[in-house]
Specification:
DNA binding; elongated; 138 residues; DNA polymerase, domain 1; Integrase_SAM-like_N; 2 domains; DNA-binding; mainly alpha
Amino acid sequence: MARIARKAPKSLPAEAHYSYRTEKTYLGWVRRFGEFTEFKPPEALTGEDFQDFLTHLAVERHVAPSTQNQALNALVFFLKGLEREVGPYIEAVKARERRRLPVVLTREEIQRSAFELKEPYYSMPYRAHAHAKQKVKK
């Protein structure tokens, strides 16, 4: 690619061996990168441009880490197509993995929900055990 065109090419080179969906996605990322850099010619692109774009995705767009990695892979492919070194361009801020709190139920909540289950979802052995425990308590 001599220049990032305003319209991305229709496909990647045949020797790339990417699926149609991967090609479409990578070309979309290259187009968004072109828009971000205001369509600078490839010779004028610096490592800072790549870093700024990846950091922009993480910080301002709040993309998931997998999305940022996908954009990075597309840019790496783009750089290889330009026959430029990849290494110095990937020192960007990484998107944060969203931490999820585990859902923990108390024993009472588990018992209550187990008794509310209808056929065929409830567990007979569990219900029989719970009923036996209740009879012992009385």
